[in-house]
Amino acid sequence: MRYFIRTVQAVVRKELRQTFRDKRMAAILFIAPVLQLTLLGFAVDMDVDNVPTLVVDQDRSPASRDLLARMLADATFARTQEGDDPDGPMARGEVSVAVVVPRGYSEDVKKGRPAEIQVLIDGTDPVRAQSAMAGVLEFLTQESLHMATARAVAMAQASGRAVEVPMISVVPRVFYNPSLKSPIYMVPGVAAVVLLVVTTVVTAMSIAREKELGTIEQLLVTPMRPVALLLGKIIPFALLGLIAGGLVIAVGTHVFDVPVRGSVLALFLGMLLYLMSTLGTGVFISTVANNQQQAILGSFFFIMPAILLSGFMSPVENMPEWIQLISRLDPARYFVQILRAVLLKGAGVEDLAGPLLALLTFGVGILALGTLRFRKRVA
User: Fold this and answer.
1) CB–CB of 285/366 below 8 Å?
2) CB 259 within 8 A of CB 253
3) How far apart are CA 189 and CA 363, in angstroms?
4) Angstrom distance (rounded) from CA 30 to CA 240
5) Are 159 and 136 in contact (CB under 8 A)?
6) What is the DSSP letter of 351?
7) How confident is the model at residue 82 (pLDDT cuts 50, 70, 90)?
């Protein structure tokens, strides 16, 4: 047993020296995660504002100008053009929304008749289209309510009756992300994706490189057991992955103001179990690949579906049921859930027993499978 431990320690020291001697590998482990998180955190922004808007005011009255001024005063819309034909600018992609106020709008409002306004929305980008549509509907609903209230008050005053306008006051309270900033929601998912990419690819490449260069056979000629060699290769990347994960969380909290409301122990435990899964996947891929190029291709064959099924961009609940069943095999899904629960909702270990157990099961399973294949390949 003592010889086994000394053997593992020797391989760990060798792997750490080799990793830090290779500046490209060190950059992948430390600089790449921070750089990727920073770029993706700023680039992946689901907030919709300053939507390019074309104004077609056919009524050209004080009422129509006042309506358009109030609609465009909100940061959601940005008046970029004025004209008479919305089809051309929208087809060319110059505007995403066109607001058309037809002739007779002011007369209809003055005489209490239903007034119509046409809003054309480019549906190429569904997220922007839905947000723009919601913004328009909310504004026009409030505008209609304001007009109806003013007319009811005027009629009551004209008849000498008391003014009674029943209203329902809605006071929403937003938990966990009161400012509704998308980076606070997206950055934890980005952190899970970055760790998935870095640790899986680096582990697969490291073992595949030994096979490609033939050095793994030289090591196995010694009395070293295959399990000791595998542990010695995994442990350094697990430690480096924890450090890289800490750097990623630090960047998220300091650059994007992502809070840390929950248990640090739950965060550390979730990250450790997640690294078991990603490193185990890297080991398994390396047993299939014969060189580094195959290891990289195999890693991305696993990584892309894992990212799509993790709930990083869109909620898992919105996916078809059969896709949701497949996503239960995705460790990134559980780690994204853990990160958002710990960082944003203040969850602890007991609150995350389900995702932590899932990660433990997946990590032990994939590590065991990778170890068995590794021993079989080197036997």
Assistant:
1) no
2) yes
3) 19
4) 8
5) no
6) G
7) confident
Q: CA separation (Å) from 335 to 65, 268, 289?
A: 51, 11, 27
Q: For residue 90, which amino acid is it? A: M
**How far does Cα 86 stand from its chain's mean position?**
34
Tokens of 192: 């899970």
Cα separation of 292 and 279, whole Å? 16
Show the DSSP H helices in the chain as ranges: 2-21, 23-26, 32-43, 62-72, 87-91, 105-110, 126-158, 182-213, 215-221, 226-255, 264-288, 292-308, 321-327, 331-345, 353-378
CA angle 349, 354, 356 (to 5 degrees): 60
pTM: 0.79
Q: Is 52 helix (H, G, I), strand (E, B) or coil?
A: strand
Q: DSSP letter string over 248-290? A: HHHHHHHHS-----S-HHHHHHHHHHHHHHHHHHHHHHHHH-S
At 322, list the tokens. 């059969």
Residue 273: its pLDDT value, please? 93
Strands 51-57 and 97-101: parallel
* Amino acid making up residue 110: K
Contact in structure between 291 and 211 (CB atoms under 8 Å): yes
Taking CA 289 as the corner, what is the angle to CA 286 and CA 294, rounded to the nearest 5 degrees?
110
Residue reference for tokens 């350094």: 236
Query: Rounded to an integer, what is the distance from CA 237 to the centroid of its chain?
Result: 25
pLDDT digits (tens, 9 = 90+) for 5-21: 777 777 777 777 776 77
Which domains can be identified in the chain, with CATH numbers? 10-45+181-378 (no CATH), 51-158 (3.40.1710.10)
pLDDT, tens only, 300-331: 889 999 998 998 878 888 888 899 999 999 99
